[in-house]
Amino acid sequence: MVSMTNKQIAAVLDEIADLLQLKGDVFRERAYREASRRLDMLSQQAAELYAAGKLHSIPGIGKSMEGHIAELLETGRSQRYEELKKEFPTGLLELLQVPGLGPKRARKLYEELDITNLAELERAAKEHRLHSVPGMGEKTEANILRALERRLTRGRRLLLGVALPAAEQVAGLLRGHPAVAAAEPAGSIRRRLETIGDIDILVASTQPKAVMEAIIHLPIVKEVLAAGPTKTSVLNPDDLQIDVRVIDPSTYGAALQYFTGSKQHNIHLRDIAIRKGYKVSEYGIFKEPGDHRVGGEKEEDIYRVLGMDIMPPEIREDTGELEAALEHRLPTLVELSDIQGDLHCHTDWSDGVDPLETMASAARALGYRYLAITDHSRGLGVAHGLSIERLREQRHLIDEFNERSPDLHVLFGTEVNIKSDGNLDYEDEVMAQFDIVTASVHGGFNQDRDTITKRILRAVRSPYVDIIGHPTGRLINARDPYDVDLEAVMRECAKCEVAMEINSSPERLDLNDVHCRQAKELGVMVAINADAHVAAHLNFMRYGVYTARRGWLEKKNVLNTLPFDELRARLRTRRQKRG
Ligand code: DGT
Ligand code: CA
Ligand code: CA
Ligand code: ZN
C-alpha cells in the first residue's frame, strides 16, 4: 500500500473533477467535487479507515467513489484520472482558473485556436485572436486580458488561516525550550492581515546558538534553508518557509514593535519620534541628543515614551491609529471572548457534513449561548437546498432540541439565496417562519453593477432578512468580488437595521477590514459568522474577529456579542416594525 494523506487524495479527486468539467460531464464532476470536499474535512485518515474496512463510513461517499479511493490508496494511481489526462493537455486546466472562462469556452479555445495553456491564451488575447471564436466578443477578450494581468500581479500570498496555525505551532514548540524567554509570530501575521507574504517569528533568548540548534531539530522542520548565528529559515511539512530571529531579551520589545510593522506605521512612528526629540529603532527608543536609551525591553516602552497608548497590532496600518493613540482615543476592539454565538452554519441537511447535534455540541464547547442553523434554500440544488417540507421537519427537530437544551439555544434559520432575478428563494409566508434569515448571492456573479446592487438592495428591504451573507462574494486568491455598490448597500442596511456579515472562512473574510470600518462609520451592525460546514470550522470565528478588529470594530458594533435574550428581542422588534 502507498500512503496517501486525505489532502493528497482530495487533490487528485479535485483534478478529476476539473477534467470532467472540461468534458462537460457535470454529473460526475459533482460527485468527485463533493467526495474531495468530504475527504478534506475528514478528521480521520482515509488510509486508516480503509485498513479497518470502514471506508464506507465516510459521509456522502458512495460505492463507486469508495472504489476510486481504495484504488488510490492501494496503488497511488487512478485509472480514470490517467484516461482523462490523455484526453486533454494538462495546461488546459489552468484556463479554468481565469474568471469568465468556463469549461465550454476553454474547450472551444482549445478546439478552434489550439490554445493549451495560460501563456498561449495571453498571447492570443494580446493578438486579438480570441474574438474570432464564436460567442466571444471584444469585451470577453478584454476581460480575459485584465484577469490575466491581475493574476500576475497578485502573486502567491498565503491565507492567514494557513500561515497563522503554522506560525503558532513553531512559536509554541520554541516556547517549550529552556533557553527561550518568549517566542511570537511578528510581521503581517501578528497584524492578522488576511494574506501573508512570509512568516516571521521572533524569539527572546540570551543563548541564540542553543535556540538555532533547537529550531533545526524541531519535529516539524522538514528542511533547513539557511542557518545563521541569529536567523534561521526552515520549511515545515507543508513547504511553508518560516524565518526565525533570535533577539536579546533587553531589546525584545523594540524588535517586536519593529518587526510587527506595518512598514507605513513604523515610518510614521519614527517621524513622530523625531519631532519629539527621540529616535526609534529595532534596538530601542533613544533620547536625542546623545542617543541615551530610554526604553525597548517592552514593546509598550516605545509608545509610552512618546506619550501614546499602545494599540493592538491589528490596527497598525497607519490609518489614524497613531493620532488616536496620541490623543488617547483608541477604540476598545471587539474580542473573541465577546462572541456569544454563531448565526450562520450548515448541517448535513444541506451541504454540511455534521448533524445538528454535533454542531450544537461544538458550539457549546466554545462557550456559545446560541447557534443559528442556516441551511441552504430550496433553489440551490448543488448545495441540497431545503424544500418547504424538509424545512418543516427541521423546525420540528430544532424545537425538540431546544426543549432538551437549557444552555444553548438553536435558532431555526436559513441562508436564503438571492436569485439572479433579484427574488428571494422562499415566499414571504415561508420566510416568516424563521427565527433568523441570512440572504446571500450564490450565482450570477457576472451581472453588471447596477443589476447586482439592485438585487441585494431588494433583499435588504425584505422585512424578513436580518443579515446579508458574504456581501461581496470574493474568494481570496480565487475569485474577485462581484461588482456591487457596497456603500449603497451599507446605507440601506443602516436604514433597514439589517446586519452585514463578516464571513470568517479564511478564504472569504467578507466583509473585509476596510469594509468593516466603513460599516462602522455608516452605523451598520456586523454579524461575525463562521459559515461552518463541519463542526471543526466553527473555530474559523477567530479570523472574522481579527478582520473586525482590523476594521476598528467594537463590541457594540457586532450583533452576535448580544446575550441571547437581547438578540431575540432585537430580531423580533425589527420584524414587527418592518413586517
Ligand atoms: P508580508 O510579509 O508581506 O505579509 O508583510 P510584513 O508586514 O510581514 O512585511 P515584512 O515581512 O517585509 O517585514 C516585517 C516587518 O518588518 C514589517 O511589517 C515592518 C518591518 N519592516 C520591514 N521593512 C521595513 C522598512 O523598510 N522600514 C521599516 N520602518 N520597517 C520595515
Ligand atoms: Ca512577513
Ligand atoms: Ca519577513
Ligand atoms: Zn453562502
Mean of all residue-level pLDDT scores: 92
Which CATH architecture of the largest domain is right?
A: Alpha-Beta Barrel
Strand % is 5-15%
- Number of structural units classed as domains: 4
**Biggest β-sheet, characterized?**
7 strands, parallel
Q: Helix/strand/pairing class, anyone?
A: alpha/beta
> Helicity level, as a percent range?
40-55%
Question: Radius of gyration, rounded?
Answer: 26 Å
List the helices and strands and how they pair.
Blueprint: H1 6-23, H2 26-41, H3 46-51, H4 63-75, H5 79-87, H6 92-95, H7 103-113, H8 118-126, H9 138-154, E1 158-159, H10 160-175, E2 182-185, H11 187-190, E3 195-196, E4 199-204, H12 208-216, E5 223-227, E6 231-235, E7 241-247, H13 252-260, H14 263-275, E8 278-281, E9 284-287, E10 292-295, H15 299-305, H16 321-326, E11 341-342, H17 356-365, E12 370-376, H18 388-404, E13 409-417, H19 428-431, E14 436-440, H20 449-461, E15 467-468, H21 486-496, E16 499-503, H22 513-521, E17 526-529, H23 541-550, H24 564-578
Parallel strand pairs: 4-7, 11-12, 12-13, 13-14, 14-15, 15-16, 16-17
Antiparallel strand pairs: 1-3, 2-4, 5-6, 6-7, 8-9, 9-10
Zinc ion binds next to loops.
